[in-house]
């Protein structure tokens, strides 16, 4: 089912640390090239680098990014192990992602966000 007015769908599985494309449904004949996947992989690597630049784990960087987006944000992360709970709780001591890292992630993801329907072009 198309979303956001796009005429194709992506079926993704995994996480930022291990994302794989499992299927692409090209309703308008859009093909995904190896070059396109290579560009995506480079972007994912740059986002990962920004999230972990100050020594955080990827999970801690992701939670820190959420905290940096708004002081009213309260992430509710999932977990399966005690180690994951401890890793998530350590984010509280680290606090929000530093401004430079947050802005880099925002820059890298900006073109993936839908355009505000009320904004003028």
TrEMBL record:
Pfam families per the UniProt record, alphabetical: Aldo_ket_red (PF00248)
All residue ranges annotated as the NADP-dependent oxidoreductase domain in the record: 42-108
The protein's name in its UniProt record: NADP-dependent oxidoreductase domain-containing protein
Domain of life, per lineage: Bacteria
InterPro entries, alphabetized: NAD(P)_OxRdtase_dom_sf, NADP_OxRdtase_dom
